[in-house]
Amino acid sequence: MSKIVKVGMADLNVAVSPDKIRTTGLGSCVGVVLYDSMIKVAGMAHVMLPSSEIARDKTNPAKFADTAIPLLLEKMEKLGAVRRRLTAKMAGGAQMFSFSTGGDAMRIGQRNVEACKSVLEQLKIRLVAEDTGGNYGRTIEMDAETGILMIKTVSKGVKEV
User: Fold this and answer.
1) For residues 115 and 70, what is the distance between their CA atoms, to the nearest angstrom?
2) Tens-level pLDDT at each residue, the chain (161 residues)
3) Structural domain tally of the chain?
4) Residue 134 main-chain phi, psi, to 5 deg
5) How far apart are CA 146 and CA 15, in angstroms?
6) Which of 40, 49, 96, 108 has the least CB density, counted as fewest CB within 10 Å?
7) Which domain covers residue 103, as residue numbers?
């Protein structure tokens, strides 16, 4: 009997087959999923902000791309995952509101996506699929058995990557 491991906002967790792992409410946030197909372990981080460097409150490392993804990798390695076998998928990073002033602070979704890609590159983890951008929210769920990521949106239905 499989269960669903829930990941909240600014949170991360891992699931082992036959379980699934899910996060809801990805707007400008990015859901990053790492997967080791050999041992069927999936990890997910719900990243809210690109960098912990500018944050006053650093008490939650799961909140930032630069600290959440390495922490997720560490958790997965404790379960036997091997970095060179890992693949990454990500979704989210939407521009949820339109602003007349196009300042950088308003492009948080795009900046989250760029930061996540940069961290994956530094860790030498291959990004194999993404569904990012747009102006709509997403819910994502990965099956630790198959490595398939289901992306649900209100406006666009369901797609699998």
Assistant:
1) 13
2) 899 999 999 999 999 999 999 999 999 999 999 999 999 999 999 999 999 998 888 899 999 999 999 999 999 999 999 999 999 999 999 998 776 555 666 789 999 999 999 999 999 999 999 999 999 999 999 999 999 999 999 888 899 99
3) 1
4) 75, -170
5) 12
6) 96
7) 4-160
Structure tokens at 87: 């693949």
Structure tokens at 115: 């930061």
In the numeric block, which tokens belong to residue 25?
């409410």
- CATH number of domain containing 137: 3.30.1330.200
116 catalytic per annotation: no
Q: Can you read off the two tokens belonging to residue 109?
A: 């979704």
**Position 41, amino acid:** V
Three-state SS at 12: strand
Which residue has 């950088």 as its token pair? Answer: 104
pTM of the model: 0.94
The catalytic residue among 15, 26, 29, 48 is 29
